[in-house]
Amino acid sequence: MSFSEEEESPDWYIEKGWHFDQNNDFVDKEGRFFDFESQQEHYEYVQLMIRRHIFDELQRRFDFYPIYVPATLDLKLPAKTVVRRGPRCPQVYATKDYRSNPKLMVIVQGLGEVPPGQWARKLFTNGKRGQWGLATQFPYIERALAEKWAIILCDPNHDEGKPKNRKTRALHVQRVWEDLIRAGTTATLDLYEAIKLEFNQRVQAIAFLDGEVSRADPSTPEGEWFAKHSRSFRKQSLDVASTNEETVATSDHDSVPGIAVKQVFRFLKAKVDQFDDIPSRAEVNALNAGPSSAVISTLSSSPQLSEPNPEPSDYGTKDPSS
């Protein structure tokens, strides 16, 4: 559904008084939940309003700011010539210290229409209470900020207007890595294959949230690295196959990130606390980055690069009807 074709949705949205209540449940003015069966024609507009609300919260509550990532990136060109606006340029969100803070958490959600700041759109409108902490990435953001980590929220699902697949998601995170860092789950594995040296020196921990994991032979250097630095958090229906996999107290794939937050941060923090010898900026800048892919949650050190020139965006501007 395109919003231009569904002109009734904005008026309907305002008339119904949709909002997040004091418990962060998405309800109408009567306190009723969204009913997909009878209101599905308005679903995409509702999700647009929710997305704008989340973007507003990222900026207001956590002081994130939006950055356009170049559709293409030639590191040989001057930074000021890089084009950062246009339909092919995706927008990511970052804390203002993402270049200066040596401890950086990068989050990339799974495949679908999910934007930055969210794990699963449908959890907002599934008719259940208490879904905010499962649907949003806010519990991860709050814990990371409490640890004084910088954060980048990627957006591999809205890149260049192309169909979403492993390749397009991988290219998105490649550009985020190269442009912002000097930088979903399959993408993390692709990133490792492309830039093993830089990955080994800078990435300290990877949390896979019910997604594809490395199948490298533990007896190889690659397998040994993943066994030491990564952990997979799986829903209950999947068997735990190795020592670096944990089950999460849910059988719902979409709820895994929200339910697993304490387990994930217990693992990440343990790895970061071991990370005392952070490479200098000169050492980091001397490394050569290559093609990469998507991640769910990863922690790395951040170099000092030329500052991008983010411009104000209406992508995160609060809509009068929200």
TrEMBL record:
GO terms for molecular function: siRNA binding. Residues 294-322 are annotated as: Disordered. PANTHER family: FAM172 FAMILY PROTEIN HOMOLOG CG10038. Signal peptide: none annotated. GO terms for biological process: regulatory ncRNA-mediated heterochromatin formation. Residues 294-307 have a biased composition (Polar residues). This is Uncharacterized protein. GO terms for cellular component: nucleus.
